[in-house]
Design goal:
5,6-Dimethylbenzimidazole Phosphoribosyltransferase, Chain: A, domain 1; two-stranded parallel ribbon; four-stranded parallel beta sheet; 47% helix; 2 domains; 347 residues; Rossmann fold
Length: 347
């Protein structure tokens, strides 16, 4: 698997320097647009273009179920995953609203919903009907984990070929903060009590139960921290794997990745475990209120763009942050330089 992504190239630092130099000729005091300037430089590094483009964005939501919900770790029953997929297809979910707002191409992919779904508009790439309960057995086989990564990779390649200039990935899967927390515990080496929060809204005693379930599952499965596929297969999720693959595809195609919340950031960490160069193609859209998200962001070495108290998932936080990327590229494209405007620069 790692060999497959050996051709993810480092970002173009030289082009980033050229973009930085150009920004300093724009009609404004040096550095006065702060992080917007940093984003423009990063987009220049990612794309290799003097005037990067991020529109239109492509949004892919991957849906999958989790056997671990048998342990009572979620506030919602498993059938909500399929019900929400239908809501996505009907245009009624948060990610639908924000995708329309930013003019995004939106795709919904079934990579592992527990029930059969043949609804119009759904991309059916089901690897299996949900993962297994990782307290009892591996969540999936290594081959299934690889297949789910390949699904994400293929769907991202497809949306990029259709013209997407920025990738946003999201997820739907009742119980998926549990495998995400388990993955983060393995990758970070931190105690599970530092990583697990309320998810979709569970009470304090349920949080304690959830922590105990994850700890028991990690001890039973004993995933290899240095093998991201082993971690995914033993305690992960199908939609988590698919998001990982999608991000690797974007990096390989030199397309910026706008990372969503906790679960998506865990997928981003897995992508960087597979290919460290993928990290520099990522921009974290927002800071979730999920307690483990701060740790995951720090492990990525990123600063989130927004902090709005989100914990919805679906890619919503990234979609809401997307106009900041638009502002960065429009600054480059449309602001006058001191010379073109006939404005005297700083002496």
């Amino acid at each position: 698997m790692n060999k497959r992504f050996a051709d993810i190239q480092p970002v173009n630092r030289e082009n980033g320097k050229k973009v930085a130099e150009y920004i300093n000729t724009l009609t404004k005091p040096l550095g006065s647009l702060g992080r917007l300037e940093e984003i423009a430089i990063q987009l220049g590094e990612i794309t290799g273009e003097a005037f990067p483009t991020v529109t239109p964005p492509g949004v892919i939501v991957f849906a999958g179920d989790h056997g671990i919900v048998e342990e009572g770790v979620s506030a919602y029953p498993q059938e909500v995953t399929a019900q929400m997929v239908i809501n996505f297809l009907q245009g009624g979910a948060g990610i639908n609203v924000f995708s329309r707002q930013i003019g995004a191409e939106l795709e919904i992919v079934d990579v592992g919903v527990a029930s059969d779904m043949n609804d119009e508009g759904l991309v059916n790439k089901k690897v299996r009907k949900g993962t297994r309960n990782f307290c009892e057995q591996d969540a999936m086989t290594r081959a299934e984990a690889e297949q789910a990564i390949a699904v994400g990779y293929e769907r991202a390649e497809n949306i990029i070929k259709q013209g997407a200039k920025c990738l946003i990935v999201g997820e739907m899967g009742i119980g998926n903060t549990t495998p995400s927390s388990a993955i983060l515990a393995v990758l970070s080496g931190k105690d599970i009590t530092e990583l697990v929060g309320a998810g979709t809204g569970i009470a304090a005693d349920q949080i304690n139960h959830k922590q105990a379930v994850i700890k028991r599952g990690i001890e039973a499965r004993n995933p290899d921290r240095n093998d991201p596929l082993d971690v995914l297969a033993k305690v992960g999720g199908l939609e988590i794997a698919a998001m990982t693959g999608a991000m690797l595809a974007a990096a390989e195609n030199q397309v910026p990745i706008l990372v969503d919340g906790f679960i998506c950031t865990v997928s981003a960490l897995l992508a960087t475990e597979i290919s460290n160069n993928a990290r520099d193609y990522m921009i974290v859209g927002h800071r979730s209120v999920e307690v483990g998200h701060e740790i995951a962001i720090n492990m990525l070495g990123k600063k989130p763009l927004l902090d709005l108290g989100f914990r919805l998932g679906e890619g919503t936080g990234a979609a809401v942050a997307f106009p900041i990327l638009q502002s960065a590229v429009l600054m480059l494209k449309e602001m006058a330089t001191f010379s073109s405007a006939g404005v005297s620069g700083k002496e």
